[in-house]
Amino acid sequence: MKLKRILKEASYSAWRMPDSKNLKQEYNVEYKHHVRNWAGDIWPTYNDFVADVKKAKKTKVSNSMDKSIGNRSRTKNKEQLLRLIKGYASYPEFRNEKSIDNLYSRIDNNESLDMPLVLKTSSGLQIMAGNTRMDVAFHQGVSPTVLVIDVSDKV
Question: Is the pTM of this model over 0.90?
């Protein structure tokens, strides 16, 4: 089992920087509807957000580091993940079993996935976007590479 995990980890290397379309969606959905509620208006404009994303540090998240990231679901398997997403506002139009299967398949086939976004605040790490991608990666034995955006001087 450990060898299988090591081989899977070595075989997946397709984490990518989110493109402008996906960053705009993260800003308009995750930031405006979730993060801004607890963090305040740290990015008054989309360009402010992009400037901080461009300075973000690419970080490979181990299981132990994952435990320190706030608001992570840490589901143990696909069934738990499907139960979780049924509570999302995006279910079933954008998030559903097919979209989850696609994430598993993308990792199996070494196809690219956007790096999740994690915020570094003055009180620790917090997931902003990509919780589901992180769960699927861990289910598949892959440590996700995330962008850690330092907002510790703002939050």
Answer: yes
